[in-house]
MaoC family dehydratase
Amino acid sequence: MTTSATTPLSDADFDTPIEHRYFEDYVPGSVYVYGSITVSEEDVLRFAGDFDPQSIHTDPETAENGPFKGLIASGWHTTALMMRMYADHYVSKVASLGSPGVDELRWVRPVRPGDSLSIRTTVRQARVSRSKPDRGLVHTGIEVLNQRGEPVLTMTAMNFLLRRPQR
């Protein structure tokens, strides 16, 4: 699987580098775009062989006659590629406390070998925890986009993040 470094794809980026980013840096309404990762046929076949061995992901000849008229990446593969870009650029390296889950994960278009993917993140909500005031919960809308700017995956991520320490 491709794991090369990805980059910001827009002029908008956090003012604070990911190594110093805390809950307060996730401002509702902020939008950031990162990427890209190109998906190869080898990546599709390897991931599917290991984790999602359905013929639409593992057998190019059978997939050609299937519902998508060709080989497509597993939705879980697409989700893993999203996570790579999300972790590389969006989630704090110093304040992340994990996630209680995601909402409304949807695979809206197939990803095919040769597609180049990026992510668009939108901070939807950020609130301080009532029970643990040293942290907050951030809801982020995520769209994975193909090279044509078409969404292939949408979801809402939730992340617990430490608040910036007081000096």
About this structure: The chain has a mean pLDDT of 94.
